[in-house]
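Annex B. Sample input.
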Amino acid sequence: MIAHYGYKDGSGDFFISIDTDKCTQCSDKPCLEACPEKIIELFTDDYDDEVVGIKASERNKIKYTCLTCKSTFGAGHAACIEACLLEAIEHSW
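Annex B, continued. Sample output.
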């Protein structure tokens, strides 16, 4: 299942998408440590699997929270994307 965290407004779509099927296969969850803003958290989903997601308090402002990290790693990339060896994380912008 693909979980989408974020929002859409007049300036665009700002979502972080996490493939929870791939995420459950990862035992280390390196994205948790890689995120400099610490907006990624570990939780148990509806199927009792441990997966990562975006903190509820950050979902409506990820465009701004992720801005410095994404600009450091280049267009379309961020530390969480680079850290995820299973390519389970994507950003829509």
